[in-house]
Amino acid sequence: MEQLTNRAQAVNRSPMTFSERIYLPAIFKGLTITLGHIFKKKATYNYPEVKRPFSPTFRGLHVLNRDEEGRERCTACGLCALACPAEAITMEAAERKPGEENLYREEKYAAKYEINMLRCIFCGFCEEACPKDAIYMSETVMPANYTRESFIYKKEDLLIPHPKKQENA
Amino acid sequence: MLLLQVDIAFIIEKLILITVILLGSLGIAMYATWAERKVAAVMQDRRGPNRAGPFGILQPLADGLKLFMKEEIIPERSTRVLFILGPCLAMLTACMTSAVVPWGPDFTLSNGHIVSLQVADINIGILFIFGVVSLGVYGIMLGGWASNNKFSLLSSIRAASQAISYELAMGISLIALLMMTGSLSLREIVSQQHGFWDGHWFTWYFFKQPLGFLIFLVCAFAELNRAPFDLAEAESELNMGYHLEYSSMKLGFYLFAEYVNMFVSSAIMATLFFGGYNFPFMDAVAQHVPAWLFTLLCVGVLMTKIIGFILFFMFVRWTLPRFRYDQLMRLGWKSLIPLALVNMLITGIVILWVLK
Lengths: 169, 356
What we know:
The structure holds two protein chains of two kinds. Chain A has a domain at about 60-160: Alpha-Beta Plaits. Chain A has five helices and five strands, in the order ααβαββαββα. Chain A has helices at about 20, 25-35, 80-85, 125-130, 155-160; strands at about 60-65, 90-95, 110-115, 135, 150-155. Chain B has one domain. Chain B has a two-stranded antiparallel sheet with strand order 1-2. In chain B, α5 (about 150-180) packs antiparallel against α8. Chain B is an all-alpha fold. The interface of A and B includes residues 27, 34, 40, 41 and 42 of A.
């Protein structure tokens, strides 16, 4: 039969030698290996007490950003929804009325902004697509929940705290 | 009237001793389950149970509680009486063996009363142990047979044939030892191993019977159904083996009996080959400490040896892969039994012509 690769190795089927047949040297060797592992560093983090540091490129739960005065940056342009391969983002745009300049940075804003976290694949394309630096992915892992509805994150869930009104909120 | 002359003090003394030994062996077996998981963890660079209490020391209690809370299932087509009798027998025989092990030297109270730290000093101690250990296979056989399950039956047949085969080599290796001791009483054997050095040679029988000890050790692994000889449970081929149909505390009894057996067989190995409660320079120590402290020290030394053996059992379990059935039988019948016979022969020759 023609061999596909040249990596095949012949198995040594010669009968066991005496030192192999009494097993003891092999057992001793095995014991030294396993006993040596007692003094090795454990790979485990004691999770709730010790948290494993995230990688700098970690993509966690989304946040909607505000500017320095606490105005929402999002203009509901829809580029994030367009970029999203999982179609997890929906939004409705609205026009800023006079007197709302302290709430919204641009003349147009997202009246409704929802991300379905069950659809989201955390690829980060929305973050890259956003021309206004409005959406970011934080270093938070999505918490578990019981209902499907609770995984549809509304704008209120996504917005970061107001820098002036909600201190350390 | 003679029958009515019961020595109440004697009965109370023995009852207290039995209670302490039973609780002690159960407690050590309980923490052996914890230690097994810890040992497995450190050998595999993990952490093991560490949530229940500091270092997870409450884990055995949680495990026991879990087993008690589980639903008790008896299969409809099983033989009910035997099904229940199986785990009971396994547990009973596991606990019975500790009766003849001397746990420490005699201890004299201030009123001259001598307290023996051995439940029963019967002059056929080793024979008693062999008898009870052989009974232990009934627990496995009954459990496997009564389950009415082919995996259980296969596994119990394996366990029984393994236990019977290795008992032979174990017995023959012990005969060589008994030719040197000249006594079957464990107390006598321990007192022959007094101290550590008798001026010519070590007193412990390990140094006089190293090959015998090796054979005994291998057979003890097989008798306990522990890795590398845990063919009876072979979870990859027999779905946990003879306790496949068991649930709740009946399963717990089977699992727990293994640890009690491990404790008892460690105690017997320490007693027969490693001097029991004797330790080097014990005479010098006895002169300088009060009697009660010396007794405690002796018990502590025996416990240290036992725990060392238990840890060794665990190290081996997490190091070696399981033997195949034919390899196991070949090792037992073709290697260990001839080796034990040769050992017996050499011992006899040495006793007859060299030491006479």
